[in-house]
Amino acid sequence: MSEQITITVQTKKAGEEMHLLHTVGRTVLETLRESGIELPSLCSGMGTCGRCMVRFIGYAPLPSQTERGRIEPDRLREGYRLSCMAKPVKNCVIQLLFKSEEKIKVLTESTVGSMEGMGREEDGDYYGGLKQGSSVIAVDIGTTTIAMRLLETVSGRVCDTYTCLNPQRSYGTDVVERIRAGSDGKAQQLQELVREAMRKGMNQFFQSAVNNKLCKSKRMAIACNTTMGHLLMGYSTDTLGKSPFTPVNIALTMFDFEGVPAALLPGISAFVGGDIVAGLYACDLHKAQKTWIFLDLGTNAEMAIGNGGRILCTAAAAGPAFEGKGEGNTTGPERIEAISHLLKEGIIDETGLLQEPYFESGIEVNDICVTQKDIRDIQMAKAAVRAGIHFLEEKFAVSMPEYRPIEKVYLAGGFGFYMDKEAAVRVGLIPPELEDKLEAAGNTSLAGAEKAARKMCMDIKEMRELDDIIGNCEVFNLAAQEDFDKVYIEYMNFVRFYK
Ligand code: FES
């Protein structure tokens, strides 16, 4: 039998320790994962991202060649190791170092999607035979976070909220890494992780339902991107990771989750998923008689334009710029604000170059350190978004003669919610003429799931609005557009083009 040792894990909370049984020959990362500790890992344990770093206190295993190449000698002597490489052979103590996740706020608020007090009372019953006290559950499974709400069906009152980081993060922070992990034989673990997180939420809601005198939840609606949906349902992710990026199933899917009839909301493509459909649904954009833009900016930037029911969508990889994981342990909105300030002060030039003496070390602004890499990440992300808006407007104007100027821009998700509008315009993420049209709409994916869950209770046919959205939606491949490279490169600079 393999020899077993104990790893004592010290977390960031002072005085908190865990003792994990570890089999000699395995990596520390494997043991941490199996114990439910979410360590970020961008490279799936290839030893290239450095995100899984831990520090050994006292005894530390000999560093591998890869670790010698990645970690400075001083830090190696101080016990720093990559947990995906480190294989201790005797009892040891490690400190977890990852900090940026502590800054991730799970957004549940939304400014849209309210449908308070639906239905009508007839002898105490409402549409669909609902009585007061009936409840539904809405779930938003994001790549980074999970948010769930328990609602009283008829009034829409939020009775309880459950949030957590998506535990699949230990297999990679973006969808590309999750797809790879799913295809590398980890699909079942990934499915179980997300389902376990949902079960925890349901257990919490079970007690809240008792406290709020609610009946067992009648329905659950789940909104998520296509990859999260595939992992939840146990579909193969193989085809999501390679051209032509064909999903296994993105139709509205009814299934049973822990005894509750659940609906996984439909998506549009591999890159424009049910979270975006839920967002459009929450904002009622399939009915809007005005021209609008909808932006959901994360590691994948989803963008849509529409008017009078017609919807045009696209998506672009935006990298880590909008997320809470840049160098210097900062959040996306913080970095946008800091970079905007540095541009104003002339410390960053138009090409994005940080002036000396800050080029090597970075510069501190409002307690956060901005590095040259942070600036490059923002440049690439904003170029992708601006190119997306450029082609959305161009294509929509060509195909819709009654196209009018944009009247409203909905910013979905946490980045848009916490982002400073003026700073976003100054760095060139948002065209200046759209600044006063911006609305931070919050977690529209959760809002859409709430609306869908409540409508499901009335009549399943009410879900047909989701089909209307999908039926009227056209998706185009941004990177395949003629002139894409030219437009993208021009938007990389901190100057305004085309507008
Ligand atoms: S270095 Fe990337 S997971 Fe360890």
Query: Ions, cofactors, ligands: which are bound?
Result: FE2/S2 (inorganic) cluster
Put simply, the count of helices is 13
Helix vs. strand class: alpha/beta
Strand tally is 21
GO molecular function: iron-sulfur cluster binding
Pfam family, one: Raco_middle
Domain 2Fe-2S ferredoxin-type: 3-100
What would your notes on this structure say?
With 499 residues, this protein is of the alpha/beta class. The chain has 3 domains: 4-98, Roll (Ubiquitin-like (UB roll)), CATH 3.10.20; 103-283, Domain of unknown function (DUF4445) (Nucleotidyltransferase, domain 5, 2-Layer Sandwich), CATH 3.30.420; 292-444 and 478-492. The protein contains 13 helices and 21 strands. It has helices at 28-34, 65-70, 73-77, 175-211, 226-233, 274-282, 332-344, 372-399, 413-418, 421-426, 444-458, 464-471, 484-492, and strands spanning 4-10, 17-23, 53-57, 80-82, 92-96, 125-126, 130-131, 135-141, 145-152, 158-165, 219-224, 253-257, 260-264, 292-297, 300-307, 310-317, 363-365, 368-370, 408-412, 438-442, 473-475. Helix 4 (175-211) packs across helix 5 (226-233) and helix 6 (274-282) crosses helix 11 (444-458). Residues 119-128 have low confidence and may be disordered. Bound molecules: FE2/S2 (inorganic) cluster (FES). FE2/S2 (inorganic) cluster binds at residues 41-43, 45, 47-52, 82, 84.
